[in-house]
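batch job 7 of whatever, protein = 3'(2'),5'-bisphosphate nucleotidase CysQ
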Amino acid sequence: MEFNIKEEELISLSRKAGEAILEVYNNVDLASEVDYKGDDSPLTHADKASHEVIMKGLKELYPNVPIISEEGAHIKYEDRKDYEYYWLVDPLDGTKEFINRNGQFTVNIALMHKNTPVAGFIYTPAHDSLYVGIKGKGAYKVEKGEKNELQVNNSTGNRIAVRSKSHASPEEDGVLKQYGVVNDISVGSSLKFCMVAEGKADIYYRHGPTMEWDTAAGQAVLESAGGKVLKGTGPEVFSYNKENLLNSSFLCLGF
């Protein structure tokens, strides 16, 4: 089956979801209303609004392609394990960044083929920046009306690590020392993948827990820019649509 990636329509959908998020973000009273899910992760009106926009848009564009979304209904493994193509969506990645009002939150939409990300769309509503990666076509960033191709650094030394703004762990230090890291930057959400993809960082190691929808779009962007994402510290590649959608630790390399 040949899949038609409607690139411009998916970019437009990412932006519409971002607009729905900003409507909440710019209403301080509404933005401050936070619920908590069963795993104690935060849920805002913006998560719900973005989810509704994306679900409606994807169903209109691709009525026969299943969707797994963080805010969607749980789909049994028996029903999803044989999906050939499906969407993996995080309507608002970086909810803690949203609550902290630092602007480092994103809309993540990934197209999966046989449990591998093949296209990723990451939109940062607060900064109006968009990252796109499509397997076989490359990756690019659109910001202030300018489109620039993305390519990893392929650095051989004096590397820069990007680390989580909300979830940094001491276990990261030992891994990063092995790769000649001399400095680090801190950023929230899937923007860490994007920092490696555009060469602002060389490595990102995540020890703590994430979910598959947190990483899929970022992996598509990074790999399309020439990087790689490994399970644990490698060499096994990172995989998706597991029975449990909780991710293991992973390592992103831009070299």
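notes: The longest strand covers residues 85-93.
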